[in-house]
Amino acid sequence: MLQGANHYANGAGAAATLASDRSPEYGIALQSLSAVVTGAVTAEGGDSLARGEIARVIGKVVSTYLNEQNVHLDLIERRDLVAALLAAYTAGAEERKATQIVAAPPPAPGMTMAPARAEPLPVAAAQRASEPANSATRATIEAARARLQPLLMARIDISEAAKLNRMELEAQIGELIPELLIETRLQLNAAEQRSVIETLLDEMLGLGPLEPLLADEGVTDIMVNGPKQIYIEKRGKLTLTDIQFRDNAHVMNVATRIVSRIGRRVDETQPLVDARLLDGSRVNIIIPPLAIDGPSISIRKFSKKSITLDIMGRQGNISPQMAGVLKIAGRCRLNIIISGGTGSGKTTLLNALSQMIDPGERVVTIEDAAELQLQQPHVVRLETRPPNIEGKGEISMRELVKNALRMRPDRIILGECRGGEAMDMLQAMNTGHEGSMSTIHANRPREALTRLENMIGMAAVNLPSRAVRQQIASAVNMIVQVQRMRDGIRRVTHVVEIVGMEGDVITTQDLFTFEFTGEGPDGKLQGVYRASGLRPAFLPKAEYFGLGKALLEAV
Fold first, then answer.
1. pLDDT (mean) for 74-99
2. Which of 207, 255, 261, 417 could make a disulfide contact with 438, Cβ separation 3.0–4.6 Å?
Protein backbone atom coordinates (compact mmCIF):
# COMPACT_ATOMS: atom_id res chain seq x y z
CA MET A 1 0.00 0.00 0.00
CA LEU A 2 1.24 3.48 -0.82
CA GLN A 3 2.44 5.18 2.34
CA GLY A 4 2.40 8.76 1.03
CA ALA A 5 4.83 11.06 -0.74
CA ASN A 6 6.83 11.62 2.44
CA HIS A 7 8.08 8.05 2.02
CA TYR A 8 9.83 9.26 -1.13
CA ALA A 9 11.07 12.59 0.20
CA ASN A 10 14.66 11.50 -0.20
CA GLY A 11 14.21 11.10 -3.91
CA ALA A 12 16.20 8.41 -5.67
CA GLY A 13 17.52 6.95 -2.42
CA ALA A 14 14.03 6.30 -1.11
CA ALA A 15 13.04 4.98 -4.51
CA ALA A 16 15.90 2.52 -4.43
CA THR A 17 14.88 1.36 -0.97
CA LEU A 18 11.32 0.85 -2.19
CA ALA A 19 12.55 -1.04 -5.24
CA SER A 20 14.33 -3.54 -3.00
CA ASP A 21 10.95 -4.60 -1.60
CA ARG A 22 9.40 -5.00 -5.04
CA SER A 23 9.59 -7.46 -7.93
CA PRO A 24 12.68 -7.50 -10.22
CA GLU A 25 10.55 -6.05 -13.02
CA TYR A 26 9.71 -3.08 -10.77
CA GLY A 27 13.39 -2.37 -10.05
CA ILE A 28 14.34 -2.59 -13.72
CA ALA A 29 11.50 -0.26 -14.70
CA LEU A 30 12.49 2.26 -12.01
CA GLN A 31 16.11 2.34 -13.15
CA SER A 32 15.22 2.50 -16.84
CA LEU A 33 12.73 5.34 -16.46
CA SER A 34 14.55 7.60 -13.97
CA ALA A 35 16.44 9.40 -16.75
CA VAL A 36 13.60 9.21 -19.28
CA VAL A 37 11.15 10.98 -16.96
CA THR A 38 13.27 14.14 -16.67
CA GLY A 39 13.43 14.53 -20.44
CA ALA A 40 9.72 13.84 -20.91
CA VAL A 41 8.63 16.33 -18.24
CA THR A 42 11.07 18.97 -19.51
CA ALA A 43 9.65 18.60 -23.03
CA GLU A 44 6.15 19.26 -21.67
CA GLY A 45 7.13 22.38 -19.70
CA GLY A 46 9.30 21.18 -16.86
CA ASP A 47 8.93 22.74 -13.40
CA SER A 48 6.33 25.20 -14.69
CA LEU A 49 3.87 22.34 -14.78
CA ALA A 50 1.50 21.69 -11.90
CA ARG A 51 2.18 18.56 -9.87
CA GLY A 52 -0.84 16.82 -11.37
CA GLU A 53 0.41 17.55 -14.90
CA ILE A 54 3.82 16.15 -14.04
CA ALA A 55 2.15 13.02 -12.68
CA ARG A 56 0.13 12.71 -15.88
CA VAL A 57 3.29 12.89 -18.02
CA ILE A 58 5.07 10.32 -15.84
CA GLY A 59 2.01 8.06 -16.01
CA LYS A 60 2.10 8.12 -19.80
CA VAL A 61 5.81 7.31 -19.78
CA VAL A 62 5.20 4.36 -17.45
CA SER A 63 2.31 3.00 -19.54
CA THR A 64 4.28 3.29 -22.77
CA TYR A 65 7.31 1.55 -21.27
CA LEU A 66 5.32 -1.34 -19.75
CA ASN A 67 3.41 -1.92 -22.99
CA GLU A 68 6.49 -1.82 -25.21
CA GLN A 69 8.54 -4.07 -22.92
CA ASN A 70 5.56 -6.36 -22.21
CA VAL A 71 6.17 -5.95 -18.47
CA HIS A 72 3.32 -6.80 -16.07
CA LEU A 73 3.17 -5.00 -12.74
CA ASP A 74 0.31 -5.30 -10.33
CA LEU A 75 -1.91 -2.40 -9.33
CA ILE A 76 0.10 -1.34 -6.27
CA GLU A 77 3.47 -1.60 -8.03
CA ARG A 78 2.26 0.58 -10.92
CA ARG A 79 1.00 3.19 -8.50
CA ASP A 80 4.18 3.13 -6.44
CA LEU A 81 6.37 3.30 -9.56
CA VAL A 82 4.69 6.50 -10.72
CA ALA A 83 4.83 7.95 -7.20
CA ALA A 84 8.52 7.06 -6.81
CA LEU A 85 9.42 8.63 -10.17
CA LEU A 86 7.40 11.71 -9.28
CA ALA A 87 9.13 11.99 -5.91
CA ALA A 88 12.57 11.55 -7.47
CA TYR A 89 11.83 14.28 -10.03
CA THR A 90 10.39 16.80 -7.60
CA ALA A 91 13.21 16.23 -5.06
CA GLY A 92 15.62 17.83 -7.51
CA ALA A 93 13.61 21.03 -7.89
CA GLU A 94 15.29 23.62 -5.65
CA GLU A 95 12.32 25.97 -5.71
CA ARG A 96 9.86 23.40 -4.41
CA LYS A 97 9.47 23.50 -0.67
CA ALA A 98 9.57 20.40 1.50
CA THR A 99 5.95 20.86 2.44
CA GLN A 100 5.03 20.67 -1.22
CA ILE A 101 7.01 17.45 -1.57
CA VAL A 102 5.27 15.93 1.44
CA ALA A 103 1.83 16.55 -0.08
CA ALA A 104 0.14 13.35 -1.21
CA PRO A 105 0.69 12.70 -4.92
CA PRO A 106 -2.43 12.81 -7.05
CA PRO A 107 -3.53 9.75 -9.01
CA ALA A 108 -1.69 9.32 -12.28
CA PRO A 109 -2.37 7.43 -15.49
CA GLY A 110 -1.46 3.77 -15.34
CA MET A 111 -1.91 3.48 -11.57
CA THR A 112 -5.27 1.76 -11.91
CA MET A 113 -4.56 -0.34 -14.99
CA ALA A 114 -6.10 -3.77 -14.52
CA PRO A 115 -3.17 -6.08 -13.73
CA ALA A 116 -2.74 -9.35 -15.58
CA ARG A 117 -2.50 -11.15 -12.23
CA ALA A 118 -5.49 -9.41 -10.71
CA GLU A 119 -7.91 -11.34 -8.56
CA PRO A 120 -10.87 -12.67 -10.58
CA LEU A 121 -13.74 -10.22 -10.53
CA PRO A 122 -16.41 -12.60 -9.18
CA VAL A 123 -14.22 -13.29 -6.13
CA ALA A 124 -13.55 -9.60 -5.61
CA ALA A 125 -17.27 -8.92 -5.89
CA ALA A 126 -18.02 -11.66 -3.39
CA GLN A 127 -15.55 -10.13 -0.94
CA ARG A 128 -17.20 -6.74 -1.37
CA ALA A 129 -20.53 -8.36 -0.53
CA SER A 130 -19.27 -10.31 2.47
CA GLU A 131 -17.27 -7.35 3.84
CA PRO A 132 -19.35 -4.30 2.89
CA ALA A 133 -17.67 -0.91 2.92
CA ASN A 134 -18.74 1.53 5.60
CA SER A 135 -21.30 4.14 4.67
CA ALA A 136 -18.71 6.93 4.32
CA THR A 137 -16.55 4.91 1.90
CA ARG A 138 -19.61 3.78 -0.06
CA ALA A 139 -20.78 7.38 -0.34
CA THR A 140 -17.33 8.46 -1.57
CA ILE A 141 -17.26 5.74 -4.21
CA GLU A 142 -20.80 6.49 -5.36
CA ALA A 143 -20.10 10.23 -5.58
CA ALA A 144 -16.95 9.55 -7.62
CA ARG A 145 -18.83 7.16 -9.92
CA ALA A 146 -21.63 9.70 -10.48
CA ARG A 147 -19.08 12.34 -11.45
CA LEU A 148 -16.87 10.13 -13.60
CA GLN A 149 -19.47 8.05 -15.46
CA PRO A 150 -20.74 10.84 -17.80
CA LEU A 151 -17.15 11.82 -18.65
CA LEU A 152 -16.22 8.19 -19.28
CA MET A 153 -19.22 7.55 -21.52
CA ALA A 154 -18.32 10.61 -23.58
CA ARG A 155 -14.81 9.25 -24.24
CA ILE A 156 -15.53 5.66 -25.19
CA ASP A 157 -17.21 4.07 -28.19
CA ILE A 158 -20.15 2.31 -26.57
CA SER A 159 -20.72 -0.02 -29.51
CA GLU A 160 -17.10 -1.15 -29.42
CA ALA A 161 -17.09 -1.44 -25.64
CA ALA A 162 -20.07 -3.79 -25.85
CA LYS A 163 -17.92 -6.26 -27.80
CA LEU A 164 -15.30 -6.53 -25.05
CA ASN A 165 -15.39 -8.97 -22.18
CA ARG A 166 -15.20 -7.70 -18.63
CA MET A 167 -11.44 -8.03 -18.22
CA GLU A 168 -10.72 -6.25 -21.50
CA LEU A 169 -13.12 -3.43 -20.71
CA GLU A 170 -11.63 -3.12 -17.23
CA ALA A 171 -8.19 -2.61 -18.76
CA GLN A 172 -9.52 0.12 -21.06
CA ILE A 173 -11.33 1.91 -18.25
CA GLY A 174 -8.29 1.54 -16.01
CA GLU A 175 -6.31 3.68 -18.45
CA LEU A 176 -8.94 6.43 -18.60
CA ILE A 177 -9.95 6.74 -14.94
CA PRO A 178 -6.66 8.29 -13.69
CA GLU A 179 -6.89 10.99 -16.36
CA LEU A 180 -10.48 11.71 -15.38
CA LEU A 181 -9.50 11.87 -11.71
CA ILE A 182 -6.89 14.54 -12.53
CA GLU A 183 -9.40 16.52 -14.58
CA THR A 184 -12.04 16.42 -11.87
CA ARG A 185 -9.48 16.91 -9.05
CA LEU A 186 -10.79 13.89 -7.20
CA GLN A 187 -8.46 12.27 -4.66
CA LEU A 188 -8.97 8.48 -4.35
CA ASN A 189 -6.64 5.85 -2.97
CA ALA A 190 -5.88 2.64 -4.86
CA ALA A 191 -8.66 0.63 -3.18
CA GLU A 192 -11.22 3.35 -3.88
CA GLN A 193 -10.13 3.61 -7.51
CA ARG A 194 -10.52 -0.15 -7.86
CA SER A 195 -14.01 0.04 -6.31
CA VAL A 196 -15.00 2.86 -8.67
CA ILE A 197 -13.84 0.84 -11.69
CA GLU A 198 -15.76 -2.24 -10.51
CA THR A 199 -18.87 -0.12 -9.88
CA LEU A 200 -18.66 1.36 -13.38
CA LEU A 201 -18.26 -2.13 -14.87
CA ASP A 202 -21.27 -3.35 -12.88
CA GLU A 203 -23.31 -0.45 -14.27
CA MET A 204 -22.16 -1.02 -17.85
CA LEU A 205 -22.18 -4.82 -18.06
CA GLY A 206 -24.04 -6.15 -15.03
CA LEU A 207 -26.93 -5.31 -12.76
CA GLY A 208 -25.40 -2.35 -10.99
CA PRO A 209 -25.71 -2.42 -7.18
CA LEU A 210 -26.99 -6.01 -7.26
CA GLU A 211 -23.74 -7.49 -8.60
CA PRO A 212 -22.03 -7.95 -5.19
CA LEU A 213 -25.15 -9.70 -3.88
CA LEU A 214 -25.30 -11.99 -6.90
CA ALA A 215 -21.65 -12.91 -6.36
CA ASP A 216 -22.21 -13.80 -2.69
CA GLU A 217 -22.98 -17.53 -2.64
CA GLY A 218 -24.52 -17.23 0.82
CA VAL A 219 -27.36 -15.06 -0.52
CA THR A 220 -30.32 -17.10 -1.74
CA ASP A 221 -32.88 -14.36 -2.44
CA ILE A 222 -32.61 -10.68 -3.36
CA MET A 223 -35.67 -8.45 -2.94
CA VAL A 224 -35.66 -4.87 -4.27
CA ASN A 225 -38.52 -2.80 -2.83
CA GLY A 226 -37.99 0.45 -4.69
CA PRO A 227 -34.63 2.20 -5.00
CA LYS A 228 -33.78 2.62 -1.31
CA GLN A 229 -34.71 -0.75 0.18
CA ILE A 230 -32.95 -3.99 -0.76
CA TYR A 231 -33.43 -7.11 1.37
CA ILE A 232 -31.56 -10.40 1.09
CA GLU A 233 -32.18 -13.85 2.46
CA LYS A 234 -29.15 -15.50 4.00
CA ARG A 235 -29.29 -18.76 5.93
CA GLY A 236 -33.06 -18.57 5.84
CA LYS A 237 -33.29 -15.11 7.42
CA LEU A 238 -34.23 -11.79 5.81
CA THR A 239 -31.80 -8.89 6.27
CA LEU A 240 -31.94 -5.27 5.10
CA THR A 241 -28.75 -4.29 3.25
CA ASP A 242 -27.17 -0.83 3.01
CA ILE A 243 -27.05 -1.10 -0.80
CA GLN A 244 -29.29 1.32 -2.68
CA PHE A 245 -30.18 2.41 -6.21
CA ARG A 246 -30.01 6.07 -7.15
CA ASP A 247 -33.69 6.42 -8.01
CA ASN A 248 -36.63 4.65 -9.65
CA ALA A 249 -35.14 5.22 -13.10
CA HIS A 250 -32.01 3.35 -12.03
CA VAL A 251 -34.10 0.36 -10.90
CA MET A 252 -36.06 0.44 -14.16
CA ASN A 253 -32.84 0.47 -16.16
CA VAL A 254 -31.66 -2.71 -14.43
CA ALA A 255 -35.10 -4.34 -14.78
CA THR A 256 -35.19 -3.59 -18.51
CA ARG A 257 -31.69 -5.00 -18.92
CA ILE A 258 -32.78 -8.26 -17.26
CA VAL A 259 -35.86 -8.87 -19.39
CA SER A 260 -34.42 -7.68 -22.70
CA ARG A 261 -31.74 -10.41 -22.55
CA ILE A 262 -34.41 -13.09 -22.93
CA GLY A 263 -36.61 -11.24 -25.39
CA ARG A 264 -39.20 -9.94 -22.95
CA ARG A 265 -40.25 -6.45 -21.96
CA VAL A 266 -41.47 -4.55 -18.93
CA ASP A 267 -43.40 -1.30 -19.30
CA GLU A 268 -46.79 0.20 -18.48
CA THR A 269 -48.53 -2.17 -20.89
CA GLN A 270 -46.71 -5.18 -19.41
CA PRO A 271 -46.05 -4.12 -15.79
CA LEU A 272 -45.25 -7.56 -14.43
CA VAL A 273 -43.02 -10.22 -15.91
CA ASP A 274 -41.19 -13.42 -15.02
CA ALA A 275 -37.66 -13.72 -16.35
CA ARG A 276 -34.31 -15.32 -15.59
CA LEU A 277 -30.70 -14.22 -15.39
CA LEU A 278 -27.95 -15.66 -17.54
CA ASP A 279 -26.92 -18.02 -14.74
CA GLY A 280 -30.47 -19.40 -14.41
CA SER A 281 -31.61 -17.34 -11.42
CA ARG A 282 -35.35 -16.74 -11.43
CA VAL A 283 -36.58 -13.13 -11.52
CA ASN A 284 -39.97 -11.52 -10.98
CA ILE A 285 -40.41 -7.84 -11.81
CA ILE A 286 -43.42 -5.63 -11.10
CA ILE A 287 -43.44 -1.89 -11.76
CA PRO A 288 -45.76 1.09 -11.25
CA PRO A 289 -48.68 1.59 -11.41
CA LEU A 290 -49.04 -1.89 -9.92
CA ALA A 291 -46.08 -1.41 -7.54
CA ILE A 292 -46.93 1.74 -5.62
CA ASP A 293 -43.56 2.46 -4.00
CA GLY A 294 -41.44 1.97 -7.10
CA PRO A 295 -40.25 -0.94 -9.24
CA SER A 296 -39.88 -4.23 -7.37
CA ILE A 297 -37.39 -6.94 -8.37
CA SER A 298 -37.38 -10.37 -6.71
CA ILE A 299 -34.50 -12.71 -7.55
CA ARG A 300 -34.38 -16.36 -6.54
CA LYS A 301 -30.71 -17.14 -7.04
CA PHE A 302 -29.49 -20.08 -9.03
CA SER A 303 -27.52 -22.43 -6.80
CA LYS A 304 -24.08 -23.22 -8.19
CA LYS A 305 -23.88 -26.27 -5.92
CA SER A 306 -25.71 -29.40 -6.98
CA ILE A 307 -27.98 -30.48 -4.12
CA THR A 308 -28.63 -34.22 -3.86
CA LEU A 309 -30.91 -36.20 -1.60
CA ASP A 310 -27.83 -37.43 0.28
CA ILE A 311 -26.68 -33.85 0.93
CA MET A 312 -30.19 -32.94 2.10
CA GLY A 313 -30.07 -35.91 4.47
CA ARG A 314 -26.75 -34.72 5.95
CA GLN A 315 -28.10 -31.18 6.33
CA GLY A 316 -31.14 -32.38 8.23
CA ASN A 317 -33.65 -31.42 5.53
CA ILE A 318 -34.76 -35.05 5.39
CA SER A 319 -33.85 -38.25 7.22
CA PRO A 320 -31.58 -40.85 5.61
CA GLN A 321 -34.50 -43.31 5.48
CA MET A 322 -36.67 -40.69 3.80
CA ALA A 323 -33.92 -40.04 1.25
CA GLY A 324 -33.77 -43.76 0.50
CA VAL A 325 -37.51 -43.99 -0.13
CA LEU A 326 -37.48 -40.90 -2.38
CA LYS A 327 -34.58 -42.34 -4.39
CA ILE A 328 -36.52 -45.57 -4.92
CA ALA A 329 -39.66 -43.59 -5.83
CA GLY A 330 -37.71 -41.73 -8.51
CA ARG A 331 -36.16 -44.92 -9.88
CA CYS A 332 -39.55 -46.67 -9.93
CA ARG A 333 -41.06 -43.93 -12.11
CA LEU A 334 -43.68 -42.78 -9.61
CA ASN A 335 -45.63 -39.66 -10.49
CA ILE A 336 -44.66 -37.21 -7.75
CA ILE A 337 -46.11 -33.86 -6.71
CA ILE A 338 -43.92 -31.63 -4.51
CA SER A 339 -46.04 -29.34 -2.36
CA GLY A 340 -44.97 -26.33 -0.31
CA GLY A 341 -45.19 -22.61 0.24
CA THR A 342 -43.21 -19.85 -1.45
CA GLY A 343 -39.48 -20.20 -0.83
CA SER A 344 -39.87 -23.57 0.88
CA GLY A 345 -37.42 -25.35 -1.44
CA LYS A 346 -39.77 -27.09 -3.89
CA THR A 347 -37.57 -26.53 -6.94
CA THR A 348 -34.43 -27.60 -5.06
CA LEU A 349 -36.13 -30.86 -4.04
CA LEU A 350 -37.42 -31.36 -7.59
CA ASN A 351 -33.87 -30.98 -8.91
CA ALA A 352 -32.62 -33.51 -6.36
CA LEU A 353 -35.35 -36.01 -7.27
CA SER A 354 -34.69 -35.56 -10.98
CA GLN A 355 -31.19 -36.98 -10.48
CA MET A 356 -32.83 -40.39 -10.11
CA ILE A 357 -34.00 -40.27 -13.74
CA ASP A 358 -32.21 -42.76 -15.96
CA PRO A 359 -29.80 -41.04 -18.41
CA GLY A 360 -31.35 -42.98 -21.28
CA GLU A 361 -34.80 -41.41 -20.84
CA ARG A 362 -36.10 -38.46 -22.85
CA VAL A 363 -37.23 -35.70 -20.49
CA VAL A 364 -39.25 -32.60 -21.40
CA THR A 365 -39.33 -29.73 -18.88
CA ILE A 366 -41.95 -26.98 -19.01
CA GLU A 367 -41.56 -23.76 -17.03
CA ASP A 368 -42.59 -20.10 -16.99
CA ALA A 369 -38.95 -19.12 -16.44
CA ALA A 370 -36.45 -21.93 -16.97
CA GLU A 371 -34.60 -22.71 -13.72
CA LEU A 372 -34.48 -26.50 -13.44
CA GLN A 373 -30.97 -27.96 -13.47
CA LEU A 374 -31.37 -31.44 -14.91
CA GLN A 375 -28.10 -33.31 -15.46
CA GLN A 376 -29.40 -35.92 -17.90
CA PRO A 377 -28.08 -35.74 -21.49
CA HIS A 378 -31.49 -36.03 -23.19
CA VAL A 379 -33.47 -33.04 -21.92
CA VAL A 380 -35.71 -30.68 -23.92
CA ARG A 381 -36.40 -27.42 -22.09
CA LEU A 382 -39.56 -25.49 -22.95
CA GLU A 383 -40.48 -22.02 -21.68
CA THR A 384 -43.72 -20.07 -21.92
CA ARG A 385 -43.94 -16.84 -23.90
CA PRO A 386 -45.90 -13.73 -22.84
CA PRO A 387 -48.04 -11.76 -25.30
CA ASN A 388 -46.43 -9.05 -27.41
CA ILE A 389 -47.25 -5.37 -27.22
CA GLU A 390 -50.40 -5.99 -29.27
CA GLY A 391 -51.57 -8.68 -26.87
CA LYS A 392 -50.87 -11.51 -29.30
CA GLY A 393 -48.42 -14.36 -29.55
CA GLU A 394 -48.78 -15.73 -26.01
CA ILE A 395 -47.82 -19.39 -25.54
CA SER A 396 -49.23 -20.71 -22.26
CA MET A 397 -48.03 -23.59 -20.15
CA ARG A 398 -51.09 -25.59 -21.12
CA GLU A 399 -50.21 -25.31 -24.81
CA LEU A 400 -46.66 -26.44 -24.06
CA VAL A 401 -47.93 -29.47 -22.11
CA LYS A 402 -50.13 -30.46 -25.05
CA ASN A 403 -47.21 -30.02 -27.44
CA ALA A 404 -44.89 -32.01 -25.17
CA LEU A 405 -47.17 -35.03 -25.54
CA ARG A 406 -46.32 -35.04 -29.27
CA MET A 407 -42.58 -35.02 -28.57
CA ARG A 408 -42.36 -38.65 -27.43
CA PRO A 409 -41.24 -37.86 -23.85
CA ASP A 410 -40.52 -40.57 -21.31
CA ARG A 411 -41.11 -38.09 -18.52
CA ILE A 412 -42.64 -34.61 -18.34
CA ILE A 413 -41.50 -32.27 -15.58
CA LEU A 414 -43.69 -29.25 -14.95
CA GLY A 415 -41.86 -26.50 -13.08
CA GLU A 416 -45.03 -25.35 -11.35
CA CYS A 417 -48.64 -26.39 -11.79
CA ARG A 418 -51.06 -23.52 -11.17
CA GLY A 419 -53.83 -23.52 -13.75
CA GLY A 420 -55.66 -25.47 -16.41
CA GLU A 421 -52.47 -27.29 -17.37
CA ALA A 422 -53.12 -29.55 -14.37
CA MET A 423 -55.72 -31.41 -16.44
CA ASP A 424 -53.31 -32.05 -19.30
CA MET A 425 -50.57 -33.01 -16.87
CA LEU A 426 -52.75 -35.61 -15.14
CA GLN A 427 -53.81 -37.02 -18.50
CA ALA A 428 -50.14 -37.33 -19.46
CA MET A 429 -49.43 -39.17 -16.22
CA ASN A 430 -52.29 -41.54 -16.99
CA THR A 431 -51.25 -42.24 -20.58
CA GLY A 432 -47.81 -43.76 -20.35
CA HIS A 433 -45.66 -40.87 -19.13
CA GLU A 434 -44.89 -42.38 -15.76
CA GLY A 435 -42.29 -40.77 -13.56
CA SER A 436 -43.51 -37.25 -14.28
CA MET A 437 -43.08 -34.59 -11.61
CA SER A 438 -44.38 -31.15 -10.75
CA THR A 439 -44.56 -28.64 -7.92
CA ILE A 440 -47.64 -27.01 -6.45
CA HIS A 441 -48.28 -24.30 -3.86
CA ALA A 442 -50.03 -25.77 -0.82
CA ASN A 443 -49.44 -25.90 2.91
CA ARG A 444 -50.40 -29.54 3.50
CA PRO A 445 -50.67 -32.69 1.35
CA ARG A 446 -54.47 -32.78 1.59
CA GLU A 447 -54.61 -29.13 0.51
CA ALA A 448 -52.45 -30.02 -2.50
CA LEU A 449 -55.09 -32.52 -3.61
CA THR A 450 -57.81 -29.88 -3.21
CA ARG A 451 -55.77 -27.39 -5.24
CA LEU A 452 -55.28 -29.94 -8.01
CA GLU A 453 -59.02 -30.49 -8.10
CA ASN A 454 -59.67 -26.74 -8.30
CA MET A 455 -57.10 -26.28 -11.09
CA ILE A 456 -58.74 -29.00 -13.15
CA GLY A 457 -61.93 -26.92 -12.88
CA MET A 458 -59.97 -23.99 -14.36
CA ALA A 459 -59.47 -26.04 -17.52
CA ALA A 460 -63.16 -25.54 -18.37
CA VAL A 461 -63.77 -29.29 -18.30
CA ASN A 462 -67.21 -30.20 -16.98
CA LEU A 463 -66.54 -33.34 -14.95
CA PRO A 464 -68.27 -34.43 -11.74
CA SER A 465 -66.16 -34.16 -8.59
CA ARG A 466 -65.87 -37.93 -8.25
CA ALA A 467 -64.48 -38.26 -11.79
CA VAL A 468 -61.94 -35.50 -11.13
CA ARG A 469 -60.79 -37.17 -7.91
CA GLN A 470 -60.52 -40.55 -9.64
CA GLN A 471 -58.33 -38.90 -12.25
CA ILE A 472 -56.08 -37.50 -9.52
CA ALA A 473 -55.96 -40.76 -7.54
CA SER A 474 -55.02 -42.81 -10.59
CA ALA A 475 -52.42 -40.31 -11.86
CA VAL A 476 -50.54 -39.15 -8.76
CA ASN A 477 -48.62 -41.70 -6.69
CA MET A 478 -46.90 -39.56 -4.07
CA ILE A 479 -47.01 -36.10 -2.52
CA VAL A 480 -43.88 -34.72 -0.81
CA GLN A 481 -44.57 -31.77 1.49
CA VAL A 482 -41.69 -29.36 2.15
CA GLN A 483 -41.74 -26.40 4.52
CA ARG A 484 -39.43 -23.54 5.46
CA MET A 485 -39.67 -23.34 9.23
CA ARG A 486 -39.16 -20.30 11.42
CA ASP A 487 -35.49 -21.11 12.06
CA GLY A 488 -34.88 -20.72 8.31
CA ILE A 489 -34.26 -24.43 7.64
CA ARG A 490 -36.27 -26.23 4.95
CA ARG A 491 -37.56 -29.63 6.02
CA VAL A 492 -39.63 -32.31 4.32
CA THR A 493 -42.54 -32.66 6.74
CA HIS A 494 -44.60 -35.36 4.98
CA VAL A 495 -44.08 -38.11 2.45
CA VAL A 496 -47.60 -39.18 1.58
CA GLU A 497 -48.69 -41.98 -0.72
CA ILE A 498 -52.00 -41.92 -2.60
CA VAL A 499 -53.55 -45.38 -2.37
CA GLY A 500 -56.93 -45.04 -4.07
CA MET A 501 -60.54 -43.97 -3.47
CA GLU A 502 -63.10 -44.72 -0.78
CA GLY A 503 -66.42 -43.43 -1.97
CA ASP A 504 -65.83 -39.86 -3.08
CA VAL A 505 -62.71 -39.39 -0.98
CA ILE A 506 -59.09 -39.83 -2.10
CA THR A 507 -57.34 -42.06 0.44
CA THR A 508 -53.73 -41.53 1.45
CA GLN A 509 -51.22 -42.97 3.88
CA ASP A 510 -48.25 -41.27 5.51
CA LEU A 511 -44.93 -42.97 5.00
CA PHE A 512 -42.91 -40.34 6.91
CA THR A 513 -43.71 -37.27 8.99
CA PHE A 514 -41.66 -34.67 10.87
CA GLU A 515 -42.69 -34.09 14.47
CA PHE A 516 -41.63 -30.86 16.17
CA THR A 517 -40.32 -31.42 19.71
CA GLY A 518 -38.91 -28.06 20.79
CA GLU A 519 -36.31 -25.37 20.27
CA GLY A 520 -32.60 -25.68 21.00
CA PRO A 521 -30.44 -23.07 22.76
CA ASP A 522 -29.09 -21.95 19.38
CA GLY A 523 -32.58 -21.12 18.12
CA LYS A 524 -32.75 -24.16 15.82
CA LEU A 525 -35.99 -26.12 15.89
CA GLN A 526 -35.71 -29.70 17.05
CA GLY A 527 -37.79 -32.64 15.96
CA VAL A 528 -37.75 -36.21 14.73
CA TYR A 529 -38.57 -37.83 11.41
CA ARG A 530 -40.92 -40.70 12.09
CA ALA A 531 -41.63 -43.58 9.76
CA SER A 532 -45.21 -44.84 9.92
CA GLY A 533 -44.13 -48.46 9.46
CA LEU A 534 -46.88 -49.01 6.89
CA ARG A 535 -46.25 -51.19 3.87
CA PRO A 536 -45.88 -48.88 0.84
CA ALA A 537 -48.57 -49.31 -1.77
CA PHE A 538 -45.96 -49.02 -4.53
CA LEU A 539 -44.04 -52.04 -3.23
CA PRO A 540 -45.12 -54.26 -6.19
CA LYS A 541 -43.78 -51.61 -8.57
CA ALA A 542 -40.53 -51.41 -6.61
CA GLU A 543 -40.20 -55.20 -6.85
CA TYR A 544 -40.73 -54.95 -10.61
CA PHE A 545 -37.67 -52.67 -10.75
CA GLY A 546 -35.72 -54.93 -8.40
CA LEU A 547 -35.91 -52.48 -5.50
CA GLY A 548 -38.51 -54.17 -3.28
CA LYS A 549 -36.05 -55.33 -0.62
CA ALA A 550 -34.35 -51.92 -0.48
CA LEU A 551 -37.76 -50.25 -0.05
CA LEU A 552 -38.75 -52.47 2.87
CA GLU A 553 -35.42 -51.78 4.56
CA ALA A 554 -35.88 -48.02 4.12
CA VAL A 555 -39.33 -47.86 5.66
1. 66
2. 417
